[in-house]
Structures are given as structure tokens and as C-alpha cells.
Amino acid sequence: MEQHDAKRVVITIETPMQRRLLAAIEEAGVTGYSILPVIGGSGRSGPWSAEGQVGRAGGMVQVICIIRPDRLDGLLDGVFAVVERHIGVVTVTDCTVLRAERF
Amino acid sequence: MEQHDAKRVVITIETPMQRRLLAAIEEAGVTGYSILPVIGGSGRSGPWSAEGQVGRAGGMVQVICIIRPDRLDGLLDGVFAVVERHIGVVTVTDCTVLRAERF
Amino acid sequence: MEQHDAKRVVITIETPMQRRLLAAIEEAGVTGYSILPVIGGSGRSGPWSAEGQVGRAGGMVQVICIIRPDRLDGLLDGVFAVVERHIGVVTVTDCTVLRAERF
Amino acid sequence: MDGLLSLALTNLGSPLILSFVLGVAAALGRSDLVFPEAAAKALSIYLLFAIGIKGGVSVADHGIDLRLGLTVLAGVALSAALPLLAFQLLKAMTRLDRTNAAAVAAHYGSISIVTFVAGTSVLQTAGIPSDGFMVAVAAAMEAPAILSALWLISRGGGSGAQVDAELWREILLNGSIVLLIGAFAIGIIVGADGLAEVESFFVAPFKGALCLFLLDMGLVAGRGLRRSRDVLTPGLLAFGLLMPVVGGVLGAMAGMLIGLPTGSLFLLTVLSASASYIAVPAAMRVAVPDADPGIYLTLSLGITFPFNLTLGLPLYLALARMLTGG
Amino acid sequence: MDGLLSLALTNLGSPLILSFVLGVAAALGRSDLVFPEAAAKALSIYLLFAIGIKGGVSVADHGIDLRLGLTVLAGVALSAALPLLAFQLLKAMTRLDRTNAAAVAAHYGSISIVTFVAGTSVLQTAGIPSDGFMVAVAAAMEAPAILSALWLISRGGGSGAQVDAELWREILLNGSIVLLIGAFAIGIIVGADGLAEVESFFVAPFKGALCLFLLDMGLVAGRGLRRSRDVLTPGLLAFGLLMPVVGGVLGAMAGMLIGLPTGSLFLLTVLSASASYIAVPAAMRVAVPDADPGIYLTLSLGITFPFNLTLGLPLYLALARMLTGG
Amino acid sequence: MDGLLSLALTNLGSPLILSFVLGVAAALGRSDLVFPEAAAKALSIYLLFAIGIKGGVSVADHGIDLRLGLTVLAGVALSAALPLLAFQLLKAMTRLDRTNAAAVAAHYGSISIVTFVAGTSVLQTAGIPSDGFMVAVAAAMEAPAILSALWLISRGGGSGAQVDAELWREILLNGSIVLLIGAFAIGIIVGADGLAEVESFFVAPFKGALCLFLLDMGLVAGRGLRRSRDVLTPGLLAFGLLMPVVGGVLGAMAGMLIGLPTGSLFLLTVLSASASYIAVPAAMRVAVPDADPGIYLTLSLGITFPFNLTLGLPLYLALARMLTGG
Ligand SMILES: Nc1ncnc2c1ncn2[C@@H]1O[C@H](COP(=O)(O)O)[C@@H](O)[C@H]1O
Ligand SMILES: Nc1ncnc2c1ncn2[C@@H]1O[C@H](COP(=O)(O)O)[C@@H](O)[C@H]1O
Ligand SMILES: Nc1ncnc2c1ncn2[C@@H]1O[C@H](COP(=O)(O)O)[C@@H](O)[C@H]1O
Ligand code: NA
Ligand code: NA
Ligand code: NA
Predict the structure, then answer these.
(1) Which domains does chain D have, with CATH numbers?
(2) B21 CB less than 6 Å from ligand 3?
(3) Ligand 3: which residue has its CA nearest to atom 7?
């Protein structure tokens, strides 16, 4: 099966910032992403869990973008502008994809 | 800790196709996978969110298979037959695992 | 955007062991992780699904740690002690991160 | 006509419809009000079980007669025939290709159980009785439409639809049908005495629970509309408003032929007028992946469902009353 | 015997049992009917809270006497002793190794709160009163069985069980116990007046809510059975049907010794006959990871739970009536 | 004073408060009792809808008068002014920097709808009527406090808060406000007749449902406290107990000026005394990410909410009675 190089960008961010992050992603010309729920975690601001929340203020989501390598810089710039002052983790991994025409 | 090379195959697919995808994976001789919920996303067919659904038609799941590198081609062939005409994203990443005897 | 090398460690483990795994992770000096729900899967002990459960005994979660490469061995040792006798899958992937000072 | 208007106003002023309107408004205003997916599913299980058991108990009370069989048959025939009609209308009114037109058509032959439930609620408010077996008719009308649509597609040649035994099992044993028919059977077995034991859970709070469910349906419909504005051509919009009326009239005529009383004739009208947005979309995603869900979901959930709920129900009730003199 | 049969039929024809049967049937037929996990958890919180508060209010009304203490003691003793008996039976009837046999045994010493709840429902239908403190007995019987099983394993040498203080805290403060005992205490404090305030939430709709919960339990049990057919040897199956009866008889005898009246003796029988499928499996996964959950979950949830619910309850009631002349 | 004590005891002995206490205790004891997130959200939708529709129906019954407008105005003024006061208190009592102090202050100007709901429940038990429009006052008080806090921050220079039109839309159309006001409008439209249709869902079971919700709030508050022990300096703790009383007294005085009767004056007191833990934290995360949620959530949810629920409510009722002679 033919595979093509791509980048897998995973952004873990607070739920209240989700809408803004997606807007930034789309502005960077990336229209493909998937959102996964995060039910708990820990970081510099201590541990939290979805069950320990009443509002959505404390929750997080994971946004995954599979992109062509040449779009990486544009995406990261846009994402960073949103994440900069907020908590959130951004990782980039090399991967390969089937059907490269879709990215 | 000793680590062994492996492949991490992630398939994002519509919920109505989940049963068929798992059958194809098993037919390819892969018996290990984990399923993660996807709560929203965007692609060529536009954005969607789990909260904007009444039925299961629109939802997606992420199926993750950790496999020995030599099983990759068989798995991708089987997966592709299911995903081909359907929406869905397939990525492959190199990784290492503990306890290689399990894969 | 400047990126830094890191390791992405993903541990899929039974819910009843979650608390012990997190304790082991923290003991290894790693304070950053995110927990994602797993809604089903299959392995040597056969297939399962979150909907087929009454208690939490059968469920699984995915714990993701992004760490500096030099912390990998310590983390894996701690994790392995917990996972050893239990079902659970551990994978390690190379990745890059923004804001390395956070890890 | 005056009666029709006041009927429409009564319907529009009921807590049920207002809850739906609130949901649509919140979604269009992009409020972050959301109904957890799990809660919506749990509510729909509750509603299906409640309506099923009540239908079964009513059948246990009144006995089974020939009407039941005839009405189920009529339902199956309507479900199978309406897609053919819808397909012709779509060819005439819109530019959809064969695949998309057939996929949309399937939805209009099948039914929306929530519209049905809202219909029973309208009957209850108006104090009109109906046959308990209409629940079974509803279940019987879910699937035949899918068959017709697949036939329409295969007739057109092309890559065709991918249908296997597994898909048929999924369609016929989908959760809603199993729950509806299962609860119906339970109702027949336990009868009025059995229902009395669980009345304060399944009967008394029913309407209030339906309010919250319709609030969620409103949110879903509103969000769907916001997202798919571009999809909606005038032709599609007109179809989404015309087809339920056409289907409803045919359903009412079938009810006349069988000699159904007002309440049941009304419900058969409602079933024929309503369009599926749960079972059929799932089947289409598997069997006809090339059809665009943006089109069929927007039509059935964004246009026809709100139309039926607000204006359709009083219209169909007036029609049923006129036809039966009830 | 005639009375027993009619009792069994009444039980089988109740909405509760039929809902369970519907769930099992849907799962065996591989319907995609699913109950959202969150809804099932919420329902179980509701049921535990309701049964706890009602028990507490009843204790507040009738006062505490020596019987309470004696029955709790009897419950603890039964919970600790039944695993030893179950272990011997398993050794005789099956080929399970020591670890798996002990893990299974733990489940049969502990209890199933849903079976208990269904038992109170049967009593209510039959119009037989019972002591409110039986809720506390249920809570007290959850954990001792685990201790016995761990002792059985450690006695056998080998790698042994991994038990630490943390695990004990988890077992003793597991959600069900805390909720049951907490609501029980609330019931004692607020008494009948306090209960009246929340009656139309916790009392009236209780049975209907239990229907939906049993529907889900049926789905879970049916799915479990489908998946683990291979695991079930004739010996295991026989154990899963025999052990509850043996446990129930011992529970009934203990109740006789204490002099419990019909209702409470019945409930002690039910608790002894029932097998855990929530607290004990979780504890076993942590402490005895080598034991196969496919075996103990299939037995307790797939065999013993359905048996108790359908045939066991009427049997135990007949037994309780016979023994107490009630 | 004797009356106050017995009032406090009645409140502490109600199933509502005891459920909350059970939740706190379970969390502090690190039980694994958890309430599924989806169930908590569904319950809060139910509670908001129920309280909104009841308020609307009551307004439909009694008509609208000048008092409504005046009270809404008073509410807005209190919401905008209390943060300024809170900010000064924080500067005097704690070492928080400007950003954190302003973020905390915002919470105390805004309101906690659950505290409000518990307040209406206390009124109902005491048999004291209140104005239905207090629901609208609650909604009106949610947002102004945020504005004041942002002004406090921007006045201090520095990087400042990031506020855009999008954020304002999110704040003003947040789910709770839309639901509360929407259900309130539905209540006004459908009136008492409409409410009667859904009474056995929205009215009768209300208190019991609130019990379960408070159980969850207790779990959340307890868990929050366990996690943030280190954050809580004596100064912060004192502020968390003092500020609600100060806010409450100001609210009561405003109510006196308008001439509100006992019940409504009590509710205005409760709103002023309560602190937000849903809408404001979300807004702060977006606009003032540098402020530490550990501080403001611990204070409002871990200290002030439990204080208000247990001791505050009877205190404010005694105050309201004293001031109005009611
Ligand atoms: N190293 C990490 N690996 C995985 N997730 C992390 C990591 N650091 C932070 N997170 C996630 O991001 C959230 C906020 O992190 P922080 O801003 O460091 O408090 C945490 O609660 C985790 O869910
Ligand atoms: N580039 C991508 N990265 C991550 N997820 C994607 C991507 N493209 C599509 N998806 C997911 O797959 C779904 C369907 O994609 P599509 O078939 O392009 O509409 C989307 O809604 C996303 O959840
Ligand atoms: N190769 C694999 N890839 C992904 N997930 C796996 C794999 N093997 C096991 N799992 C997950 O781990 C669980 C337990 O695996 P096992 O111990 O092999 O039964 C499975 O149910 C899956 O959720
Ligand atoms: Na139809
Ligand atoms: Na037992
Ligand atoms: Na306030």
C-alpha cells in the first residue's frame, strides 16, 4: 500500500479555548482535524479530572491534525498564537498516511 | 528497559463502519486494538460534533492498532478495503514497545 | 517555530490500576500527563466494550506522557513495575514539542 | 379554517413545541448550551420504552382485531412506496443526482419516532383516543423504505449500493425497533395491572421528559441548519416542506380505506409525513457512502422535522378530523 | 408446589423481569441497542440512594434492636464463609486452578445489590414488610468475602495476591458502599418527614427506573454471555446454578437462627444467594491480576444473576415463607 | 437567636444539605464514588429548566409590575459593584496580586444558581412565597461582575485581559442564562395550565433531583478542597467566609430600598452572597489566563458555596425576616 509522509500535530488545550483554536487552525488553511475528549491529567497547574468539574472551565480536549509536512510551519504559528498565554501542550510526530490527496 | 520496534496504526472512521473495520482488522490477523471516542472534527465533508447528532450515523471513533512492523502491509490492505469508499483517515507511526512478545 | 525533541509515552491500562499507575509516574519525577478514555478494544484477553460493563473493573484508559528524552528510562522502569503483572500496552514515539521549558 | 388556526396556535403554545423552539433559537444564536449525548440517548430509551409499553397495554385491553393487520400492511406499503414518489419529486424539483435523490427518498418513506410521540401527545391533549397497535405500525414502517431506495440506486447502475446480510440485521434489529417492539410486547404481557406498578415513572412524567428531549432536538436541528445553509437550495427547501404534506395525505387516504378512527388515522398520517433521521442515515452511511449526509440530514432534521412538529401536526389533525368527521 | 409455580410465573411476568429478558434477547440477537454508560451509572446512583434512604427512614421509624446487630454479624460471617464453601465446590465440580477458583469464590461470598433491590421489589408486590436495616447488612456483606478469597490464594503459595492498604481503602470506601451507607444514615436522620419531601423522586418512580436499569443489566449479561461462550464448561455452568441455591439456603438458616421475620429472612437469603459483579471484580483485577475475568464475570453476571432474578427470587420467597410460616 | 439556631438545624437536617455533606465526606475520604459528568450536566439542565418555567408561570399568574424592573436593576448594580468591594477586601486581607484579586472578585459579583435553587427550596419548606421574576434577576446578575473585574485589571496596566466580541457573546449567551431565560419565557407563555401538563416531571420530583445534584456538588467541592489545600491561606479562607455575608447584607439592603417582601428579599440576599463557579471561571480562563483557577475555584466552590448552603441560607432567611418583619 503506498504511503506518504505527513505530520501528526496534537494539541491538548482547555475547553474554553477550543473554539478559538479551531478558528486559528482553519485560518492557517488546515481544514482537517479530529477532537478527542481528555478526562483528566496533570501539569504545572496540578492534577485535575473531568469528574471534579462543574463547569466546562476546567476540561481539556485533544485536537489532532494530520497535515502535509509543508503546512507545518503555518499551522504551528497559528496554533502558538492561541496557546501562548494559555495552558496547553503541542506535539508534532512524523507519520505516513494512505490517500495523500486528502491532506 | 528493552524496547522493540513496532508500528502504531491509527484509523479514524465513522461509527456505522466500526464493526466492519474491526472484522477486517481481525481478518488481517491482528487481534490487538483499542477504540477511542472522537467528539468532533472537520474534513472535506465539513465540521461535525458529537453534540450535534441524534443518531450514531455521524459519530466517529479512532481505532489504534500496535503491530509488529511485518504485519503492516496485511493490515493496511484489509483496512483500506473498508475505508476506501468511506470517509476516514489512516496514519502510521513508528514506535517502540515494551514486551514485544505480546504483538 | 522552534521545536525540541521529546518522547511521547502512551500507556493503555485497566481503570482499576489507573491510580497506581499515576502514582508510579509521579514517583518517576514526571508530573505531566493526560488521560483519555478508551471505549473498547481487543487483545489476548478477548474483545471488550465500555457498554458491556457494569462496574469499572473492565474499562481502560490511555495515559499519555510527553517527556524529555532523558527521562524516558526512569519513567519506563516505574511504569513497567505497575504494568508487569497486569494487562496493558506501552508505546514510545519520538516527537517534537513547542515550549520545551515546560517538560 | 378558523379551527385550524386555533389548533395551530394551541400546538405552538404548548411547552413541548416551545422547548423545541428554544433549542433552535439557542443553536442559531450559537449559545454553548449543549445536551450531553449520553443524556439524549437515555431520554430516547425512556421515551421509546414508555410509548411501547403503553401501546402494548392498550392492545392488551382492547384485544387484537383485523384492523391491526391491515394497518401494519398499509404502513409497510406506504414506507415502500413513498420513496418512489419522493424520488420523482426530487428529480423534478431539484438537481440531485440519482444516488443522493434515492438516499433522501429513503428518509421520507421511513419515519421519525419523535414526531410520532409528539403526535400522541397532541392526541392526549385533545382527548382523542388511538389504537395501541400504532406503535407496532411505527416499527414496521422503519425499514421498507430503505429497500426501495437501494432498488432505485441499483436500477441506475453505477457502483451501486453495498448491502449484505450484516447490514440487514443491523437495520432490522436496530436499537429503536427492538426497544419499541420489546416494550410493546412487555405491555401486552403485563397489561394494565403491570403498567400501574410503573406508571409514575413511564406515564406521569412523560410529557415533561419529552420537553427536554425536544429542547435537545431543537439544538440539534438548529446546529444542523447553521452548518448546512449552503446545501439548501430553494428546490430542496420546497421539497422538504411539500413532501411531508404529500406523504401525510397519502397516509390519511390509506387510513380512510382501512376505516381507521380519528386518532389512529391521524397517527398514520403523522408517520407517513415524517422523515427518518436516525435509522436511515446510519444505513445510508454504510450502504451508500457516496450520498452526502449534509443533504439528507439537513432536509429531514432541519426542515421536515420542525415543519411537522409546529405546523404539520395541527394540519394533520384537522385533516384526520375532516376525513373521519371526528 | 403449586404456589411456588404461580409465584414464579408472577415474577416472570413482572415488568422488571421482562425488561431484563428484553435486554438479554436484544444482546443475544446482536442488536445495536446500547445504554449509555453514564446513564447506567446515574441510574445505579439513584437506585442505591433510594434504597438506602428508605431503609434508614424505616429504621428511624421502628427503632434499632438487637436483631440489627445480630443480622449484620450473620451477614459478615456468611460473606466470609461462603467463599470457602464455593472454593470446595469449584474444586470438586470444575478444573479451575487455585487462583481462579478463589477469585470466583470471592464473588459468591459478596453480594449483588441489584438482586437485593429486585428482592425488595418482590416483597413490595407481595405486600410483605422487611427491616430497613437489611440495607446495612447488604453493605456489610460486600467486603469480607474478598478477605477469605485472598487468604485462600495466599495459603496456596505461589506469586500470591498483591494487597496493600490502598486497596483496602478502595474496597471499603467503594462508591456503592459509601452511597448505600450514606443514604441510609441520611434516612435515619431525616425520618419519615424528610422522606416525604423527596418521595415523588425516590419512592414513586423507583420501580420504573429499576425496569430501565434491568434492561441495561440484561444487555450487559447477554453481551457477556455471547462473548464468553467458550469459557463456560458444564461444570462451571452447574456451579453457577447450584451455588446461589446453596448460599441462599445457608442464608435462610442463619436467618432462622436469629429469628428474622419472613421479609428480612428472604432478603438475607437473597444476599447470600447473590454474587458480586462490581466491587469484587475491581478488587480482583488489582489484587489477583492472573485470575481470568472472563470466568468470574461470566459466572456471576451471565449465569447466577439471571438465575436469581428469574427463578431464584420466587424460590427464595417460597423458602422464606415455608421456614417462617409467613 | 434561638430561632436562628433552630432554623440552621432544620436546614442542616434536610435531605438536601445532608446529601451535600455526604458528597463532601465521600470525596475527603477519597471514595471512588463519582457522578458521571453527563448525568451532572443533564441534572443541571433539568434544574434550570424547572426553576425557569416555574418562575415564568408565577409571573404569568401575578402579572408584571414596577418591582420587577427595579429588582433587575438592583441586581445588575450589585453584580457590578460587589467585585469592587471584594477587590478592596482581597487587597486588605490577602497577598493576591491585582490579576488574581480581580479574577476572584468577579466570581463574588456574579452568582451561583445552585445556591439560588437551594434558597427557593428553603423558602418552600418554610412556606414563604417569592416573586417568580427573581429567576430573571438571577440571570441578569451573571455577567456584569465580569465587566467590573476586567476593568479592574485593565486599570492596572500590564498585559491586560483579552476580551473580544466573541467572548462577550459567549458570556451573554452561555448555556445557563439561555436556558434559564428561555424556560422563564416558556413559563410566561404557557401559564399555569401549561405547567400542569408537565408538573409531575418539573415540579413534584424537583427536590429529590436536587438532592442528587447536591451530592455531586459535594463530591466536586470535596475533591477541590483536597487538591487545593496548599492554596488556602488564612486570609483567603477568611475572605471566603466574610465576603458572602457582606454581599448578602448589601443585597438585603438593596431589597429593603425597593421594598421587596420577605421571600424575594431573601433570594436577592442569597444571589448577592453567592459566588459563581461555572460562567465566570470559563470567562476568566479565556480572558485572564494568568489568573490561577486553583485560587478562585477553591474559594467559590470549596469555601463559599458550602458555607452558603449550610450556614448562610438560614442566616440570610433570619436577616430577611428581621428586615421585613415577615
Ligand atoms: N507532559 C505532559 N504530557 C501530557 N499531557 C500534559 C503534559 N503537561 C501538561 N499536560 C496536559 O495539559 C494540562 C495542563 O498542563 P499545565 O499547563 O502544565 O498545567 C495537564 O492537566 C495535562 O492534561
Ligand atoms: N487531516 C485530518 N486530521 C485529522 N482528522 C481528520 C483529518 N481529515 C479528516 N479528519 C477526520 O475525519 C472526519 C471525516 O473527514 P472527511 O472525510 O475529510 O470529511 C473529519 O470530520 C475528522 O474527524
Ligand atoms: N496491539 C494492541 N494495539 C492496541 N491496543 C491493544 C493492543 N493489545 C491490547 N490492546 C489494548 O489492551 C487491552 C488489553 O489487552 P490484552 O492484555 O492483550 O488483553 C485490549 O482490550 C486493548 O484495549
Ligand atoms: Na414517512
Ligand atoms: Na452472596
Ligand atoms: Na454574588
Answers:
(1) 35-324 (1.20.1530.20)
(2) no
(3) B32
Do chains F and A meet with 3 or more Cβ pairs nearer than 8 Å? Answer: yes
Check B34 against C44: CB less than 8 A apart: no
Cα(B41)–Cα(A32) distance, rounded to whole angstroms? 7
Q: Which residue has the cell 407563555?
A: F189
Chain centroid to CA F262: how far?
19
Long-range contacts of F66-71 (CB under 8 A, 24+ apart): F67/F131, F67/F133, F67/F258, F67/F259, F67/F260, F68/F131, F68/F133, F68/F136, F70/F258, F71/F131, F71/F133, F71/F134, F71/F137, F71/F255, F71/F258, F71/F260, F71/F264, F71/F268
Which of B22, B51, B87 to probe by mutation at the D interface, max D CB count within 10 Å?
B51
Top residue of F53, F166, F186 to mutate, by most chain D CBs within 10 Å, is F186
| Residue E141 bridge partners (DSSP) | none
| Ligand that comes closest to the CA of residue F294 | 1
Contact status of D142 with chain B (Cβ, < 8 Å): no
The angle that helices D165-172 and D279-287 make with each other, rounded to 10 degrees, is: 170
Question: Using CA atoms, how far apart are residues F287 and F163, in angstroms rounded to an integer?
Answer: 6
Q: How many CB atoms lie within 10 A of CB B84?
A: 11
Alpha carbon nearest to ligand 3 atom 4, residue: B33
Q: What is the pTM of this model?
A: 0.95
The whole-angstrom distance between D65's CA and the closest CA on chain B is 35
Fold for the domain defined by A4-16+28-94: Alpha-Beta Plaits (3.30.70)
In degrees and rounded to multiples of 5, residue A36 shows phi and psi of -115, 145
Alpha helices, DSSP H, located in D63-174: 66-93, 98-109, 113-126, 134-140, 144-155, 165-172
- Among F37, F217, F294, whose Cβ lies nearest the Cβ of A50? F37
How far F185 CA lies from chain D's nearest CA (Å)?
Answer: 9
Judged by 3 or more CB pairs under 8 A, whether D touches C is no
Has the ipTM of the complex gone over 0.85?
A: yes
Q: Which residues pair with C33 in a beta bridge?
A: A42
Spatial separation of the C-alpha atoms in residues F189 and D215, rounded to whole Å: 16
Are F294 and A45 in contact (CB < 8 Å)?
yes
Using CA atoms, how far residue E77 sits from A5, D274, E107, E145, E266, in Å, is 65, 61, 15, 9, 17
- Which residue ranges make up each domain of chain C? 4-16+28-94
Distances, alpha carbon E245 to alpha carbons C57, D260, E102, E252, E315, in Å: 26, 53, 19, 10, 9
Distances (CA, A) of A96 to A4, B80, C37, E52, F54: 5, 14, 25, 56, 57
Is A32 in CB contact (< 8 Å) with chain B? yes
Closest residue by Cα to residue D310 from D3, D22, D4, D20: D20
- Nearest alpha carbon to residue A11 among A101, A92, A99: A92
End-to-end C-alpha distance for chain E, whole angstroms: 16
Per-residue pLDDT of chain E (326 residues; tens, 9 = 90+): 567 778 788 888 899 999 999 999 999 999 989 999 899 999 999 999 999 999 999 999 888 888 999 999 999 999 999 999 999 999 999 999 999 999 999 999 999 999 999 999 999 999 999 999 999 999 999 999 999 999 999 887 655 566 778 888 888 888 999 999 999 999 999 999 999 999 999 999 999 999 999 999 999 999 988 888 888 899 999 999 999 999 999 999 999 999 999 999 999 999 999 999 988 998 998 899 899 988 999 999 999 999 999 999 999 999 999 999 87
F34 interfaces chain E, CB cutoff of 8 Å: yes
Contact by Cβ (8 Å): E126, E317: yes
- Residue having the nearest C-alpha atom to atom 9 of ligand 2: B43
Please give the number of the atom of ligand 2 that sits closest to the Cα of B40: 23
Element (H, E) at B49: strand B46-49
